[in-house]
Amino acid sequence: MRKRTKPADGSEGAEGGNSAASLTRGLEILRAFTADDATLGNQDLIERTGLPKATVSRLTSTLVGLGYLHYDDMLGRYSIGPATVSLGYSALSSSAVIHMARPLMQELADQTGAAVALGTRDGLEMVYLANCRSMSPVSLRLNVGSRLPIYRTAMGLAYLAEMQPDIRQSVVGQLVVAEPEKAEELDRLVANAIEDYRRDGFISAFGSWHSYINAVGVAFRPTDGSPLVALTCGGIVDILSRNHCRESVGPGLLRLTRRLRARLAGEPDPSPTSQRPPTWKTSAE
Question: Under a CB-based contact definition with an 8 Å cutoff, are residues 76 and 65 in contact?
Fold first, then answer.
């Protein structure tokens, strides 16, 4: 890594730069934890962040002191601390979209016997912000914080299809850089997703993430300035056949978004025969 240059007078510029760099790296350490990680060790953090061992040791010590990480002396490993949990809970609990969407999501999950989730983009992945399951013993067991590949999932492809073209192209470019051997597949998947989304209003993904999972995704752009999100309904192929996805689950997700938009606007639920709402576009995602 190139060394930062200090200002000639040795004043606050260097301190400001170093503080910003430390903050960025500290956030990288927190981002290294996923919903599947109970604990991570120093070596895990070094491998996931690419940061030097000394930097990881220094920053984890600071994060433990601030309560953003917890250190288990017996295991010699770190877990997410109460300050991080509180921060995440505050963000989720203050979201009107999540609050209004959850009962509608649960209703659809119960109707389909599948799992319904709401998420948004984080880098080149989709992260779950809310998740509702049916009582079925074979429902997908993903949770808030779970991460999914953006280009292999119905949620991610619906999100990409709704993005502004220039921003979408930038994201696809980053995906190609990360996985150059899949450039042709990426272009095909995204092009098909855009076409399906324009025609049907939803995206179907059959076995593209795991061969035994079918799913449908729709994007939702809140009119209050909140970030673009996507919703998905997915389950094993024995529960969600291709025909069921196209004929029932997709239209069910579109009805969910119409009802969610109405509730956020303080309006009564639209009738089942309402047409698909217009796509809302903004200058940024």
Answer: no
Q: What is the Cα–Cα distance from 160 to 119, expressed in whole angstroms?
A: 13
The 8-class DSSP code of residue 23 comes to: H
Residue 60 has which token pair? 């984890």
> What is the Cα–Cα distance from 54 to 50, expressed in whole angstroms?
12
Measure the CA–CA gap between 113 and 218, rounded to whole angstroms. Answer: 18
Show contacts of 174-177: CB within 8 Å, 24+ apart: 174/124, 175/124, 175/150, 175/151
**Burial degree of 83 (CB within 10 A; 0-12, 13-18, 19+):** middle
Question: What is the mean pLDDT of each successive set of 10 residues along the chain, which is 285 residues long?
Answer: 35 53 85 80 90 91 88 87 74 76 93 92 89 73 83 94 92 92 90 93 88 92 85 90 92 94 85 45 40
What letter represents residue 184's amino acid? E
Among residues 78, 67, 70, the alpha carbon closest in space to that of 43 is found at: 78
